[in-house]
Amino acid sequence: MLRAAKQIAHHRGTNERITYLCSKIVTSTSNSYYSTLNQKTYKGGGKSNGWSKYFLAPRGPKGWTIPPSRGYGMIVARVLRGALKLRYILLGGAIGGGVTLNKKYEDWKDGLPDFKWLEEVLPKDEKWTRFSKALAEFGSSVKDVIEIDPRLRQLGEDKIAEWRRWFDTRLDDAIEAADYQGSTLNESKGEIKAKTTVTALSLSNDESRRKYEALQSQVENLQTEVINVQIKYQRELEKMEKENRELRQQFLILKQNKKTSTKKIKKSLIDMYSEVLDELTGYDSSYSMADHLPRVVVVGDQSSGKTSVLESIAKARIFPRGSGEMMTRAPVKVTLAEGPYHVAQFRDSDREYDLNKESDLSELRREVEFRMRASVRGGKTVSNEVISMTVKGPGLQRMVLVDLPGIISTMTVDMAADTKDSIHQMTKHYMSNPNAIILCIQDGSVDAERSNVTDLVMQCDPLGRRTIFVLTKVDLAEELADPDRIRKILSGKLFNMKALGYYAVVTGRGRKDDSIEAIRQYEEDFFKNSKLFHRRGVIMPHQVTSRNLSMAVSDRFWKMVRETIEQQADAFKATRFNLETEWKNNFPRLRESGRDELFEKAKGEILDEVVNLSQICAKKWEEALSEKLWDKLSNYVFENVYLPAAQSGSQNSVNTMVDIKLRQWAEQSLPAKSVEAGWETLQTQFLMLMEKARKSPDHDDIFDNLKLAVIDEAIRRHSWEDKAIDMLRVIQLNTLEDRFVHDKAEWDHAVKFLENSVKDKLDQTEHTLSEMMGPGQFTRITHWKSLTEDQSKRRHVKYELDKILRTDEKHLPTLSYDELTTVRKNLQREGVEVDTDYIRQTWFPTYRRHFLKQALHRAHDCRKAYYLYTQQGTECEISCSDVVLFWRIQQVIKVTCNALRQQVINREARRLDKEIKEVLDEFSEDEEKKAQLLTGKRVLLAEELIKVRHIQEKLEEFINCLNQEK
């Protein structure tokens, strides 16, 4: 309006034009005022003298006509003009100033640094408090466990201090800018200071510490989680590496356009023998049966140098080391073989470690340590799980060695209580193998009387027919021990134990960084220059150096292999024959199927049942969904919608209350309940398909446990799509808006639905009353039953309440105070004392039964009242609002079931199929899970038969190659 006034004033440029504008404004906005003005007289009463005609007459751009007498009307116009001008000047100034201030504020605000990242980084107060306490406790605990380099700690503290100074500077600059512009950011400043204060206090909080046992448990749990995650990703990495190699090979084949002939790679004898040992270990992990094939068992006291002896034989430092700490926590089987390259490889991995590269050696040692810690579970210190690896290289002697944890005499506080006994038992098990070569390691730098291993060796091999004694650290023994004492040890005269041979070796100079070449050179130089070992008669030349030791052990190993391999093959041949006979007697018509084969068969059957979900007809889906949906909704419809509305009073109030409650229901809980019913129906139908498959004649009950576990896990993970709830809410709200029954058939279905629902609820009420009142007279006589005291009281109260309902059939749902008093007094006359709560408890089911019976009568009357309802609507003589309500509920159930059925067929069945496949893939990788779910005599016998047959075939293959080599 102000802009229009300015334009007109600019084009016309006179006071009269402003007057004309004001008159037009007055004319357009206040017709009532000008009509009153025209009716007034000017200066002295009487009728209007026509002034309003001049004032309101239209004027052209050039036809400005001023009345001859500038009277009262002109003065009013000028006053209005001045008032409006002053008003719009003030309004324009306020608006312009506000716009300018707002623009200045936005420019200043854009210049400030963005602090929104603080809200994303810093959590809420309670979460931040819990996190800071946990972080402080974990930091204080880890600080006691992990030693941090002081230089690294100082560097980290300097970096943190520098970051804090930078952050404080930026924060102070922002706060000063906010104070300069105004006080609008005072609250933000306080919040930022509070957050930084809380952060600083939380970061510096180290007051709370846990006890040592809790700390140890926390660290072990964390290590276990890290180990499990690393194992999982290690498997995935190895799987991807294998697939990558296969794809690369296929690519090269396609590129060269050549057909490859599948040739069997010829393995070395020692590799074949190592595989046989691995198969035997998996077949008999307790070492209590026929696992008697030769191997070299390296035993000795802790820190006696047994691991160093094995590394010297393997010509590589392949094991982790620690300062006085137990590093060997599990048996390590090392297969030595000759090859062109010096490499190492784990049995369950395809990766090869180049032992000539220090980086690969470091990774190999880390992997060995990781596998050892992964094998130790449940708070144990040592484990029986064997870590198998192969080492190949030029000049290596072919043999299989097993490095065992060192024997200890005293346990530390960080060890499990059974560590000492576990090591002794494990060592005895390996040495009790009658064909095991015992490599007994004795530390030459300590007194022989302190040895623990010699007693164990004498118990397992008293005649010394398979024991080789090795004296380590003889370079230190030369300085400390008596030469005659060393001579007695190496000649077998100091200990009572006997051995096939006695050897002296040097395992290093105590330096962790020394290579095997440096250690071997130091050993050769020592034995060349040693005065002790150059004296005549002290030692024989073939009894020194690791090279001579490895050759002697290898010769003895292969001699024992040739002597015993035929016996072991015959033993497994007999075992295989016995198992096959047992299988034929118990399962004559079945093939020997292992767990992997059975799992694949069960997997196919489960996925077939998922496909069958889509074959269920639409009618069956909707019937099942409708039944499940009404089962979930019926209680709410009666208790929260129908009964409160029907018992409220007049017909109009009933309809209003029904509309309100139905809308609230559709907006809040109805969509979620519908989705819940759909999910339970999908689950039920799937289980019914599985049960139907179980009753078929071709069903194999060995898969039942696996199928149920897979389905339960998939169902537990499955959740309905979130957008389905919003879609159902819109459909249900639109359906409930329809309040008119369209035809007679729908009316009849609604009446039937009402009658069935009321009858079900009436049966429940009758059952409740029966429990409260006790059995009837006929039942008491025929079944020799009697009423309890409470049931007798209930009968008297119900008799009085029935009289009230007979008197007033349209009684309200509640009893008045006078009625309660009357019932209680009548009962007192009969000698029954009850309180008002007792009467109300009996009144509730009594009145409900009375009301439901009346509802059934109304439904019967409404059955033939459809045409009367269509003509009179809500003013119908017969009240049929119950039928209309249940018709609306019925329509909602119908459209909901249709939507859920489409969702199940189009989306949920496929999503369930995907989740079942994921569960099956996880179970296929979990051997423990498969062994738990696929069990029974049939599975166990088949598994054992398959393993024995496989081992026997490998033994025969190895024997054939061994005979050819002769």
Automatic annotation (TrEMBL):
<protein>
    <recommendedName>
        <fullName>Dynamin-like GTPase OPA1, mitochondrial</fullName>
        <ecNumber>3.6.5.5</ecNumber>
    </recommendedName>
</protein>
<keyword id="KW-0809">Transit peptide</keyword>
<keyword id="KW-0446">Lipid-binding</keyword>
<dbReference type="GO" id="GO:0000266">
    <property type="term" value="P:mitochondrial fission"/>
</dbReference>
<dbReference type="Pfam" id="PF19434">
    <property type="entry name" value="OPA1_C"/>
</dbReference>
<dbReference type="GO" id="GO:0008017">
    <property type="term" value="F:microtubule binding"/>
</dbReference>
<dbReference type="InterPro" id="IPR001401">
    <property type="entry name" value="Dynamin_GTPase"/>
</dbReference>
<keyword id="KW-0472">Membrane</keyword>
<dbReference type="GO" id="GO:0008289">
    <property type="term" value="F:lipid binding"/>
</dbReference>
<dbReference type="GO" id="GO:0006915">
    <property type="term" value="P:apoptotic process"/>
</dbReference>
<dbReference type="GO" id="GO:0048312">
    <property type="term" value="P:intracellular distribution of mitochondria"/>
</dbReference>
<dbReference type="GO" id="GO:0006897">
    <property type="term" value="P:endocytosis"/>
</dbReference>
<dbReference type="GO" id="GO:0005874">
    <property type="term" value="C:microtubule"/>
</dbReference>
<dbReference type="GO" id="GO:0016559">
    <property type="term" value="P:peroxisome fission"/>
</dbReference>
<dbReference type="GO" id="GO:0005743">
    <property type="term" value="C:mitochondrial inner membrane"/>
</dbReference>
<keyword id="KW-0175">Coiled coil</keyword>
<keyword id="KW-0496">Mitochondrion</keyword>
<keyword id="KW-0053">Apoptosis</keyword>
<dbReference type="GO" id="GO:0005525">
    <property type="term" value="F:GTP binding"/>
</dbReference>
<dbReference type="GO" id="GO:0005758">
    <property type="term" value="C:mitochondrial intermembrane space"/>
</dbReference>
<keyword id="KW-0378">Hydrolase</keyword>
<dbReference type="GO" id="GO:0008053">
    <property type="term" value="P:mitochondrial fusion"/>
</dbReference>
<dbReference type="InterPro" id="IPR027417">
    <property type="entry name" value="P-loop_NTPase"/>
</dbReference>
<feature type="coiled-coil region">
    <location>
        <begin position="902"/>
        <end position="929"/>
    </location>
</feature>
<dbReference type="Pfam" id="PF00350">
    <property type="entry name" value="Dynamin_N"/>
</dbReference>
<dbReference type="InterPro" id="IPR045063">
    <property type="entry name" value="Dynamin_N"/>
</dbReference>
<keyword id="KW-0342">GTP-binding</keyword>
<dbReference type="InterPro" id="IPR022812">
    <property type="entry name" value="Dynamin"/>
</dbReference>
<keyword id="KW-0999">Mitochondrion inner membrane</keyword>
<feature type="coiled-coil region">
    <location>
        <begin position="205"/>
        <end position="257"/>
    </location>
</feature>
<keyword id="KW-0812">Transmembrane</keyword>
<dbReference type="InterPro" id="IPR045817">
    <property type="entry name" value="OPA1_C"/>
</dbReference>
<keyword id="KW-1015">Disulfide bond</keyword>
<keyword id="KW-1133">Transmembrane helix</keyword>
<feature type="domain" description="Dynamin-type G">
    <location>
        <begin position="290"/>
        <end position="566"/>
    </location>
</feature>
<keyword id="KW-0547">Nucleotide-binding</keyword>
<dbReference type="GO" id="GO:0003924">
    <property type="term" value="F:GTPase activity"/>
</dbReference>
<dbReference type="InterPro" id="IPR030381">
    <property type="entry name" value="G_DYNAMIN_dom"/>
</dbReference>
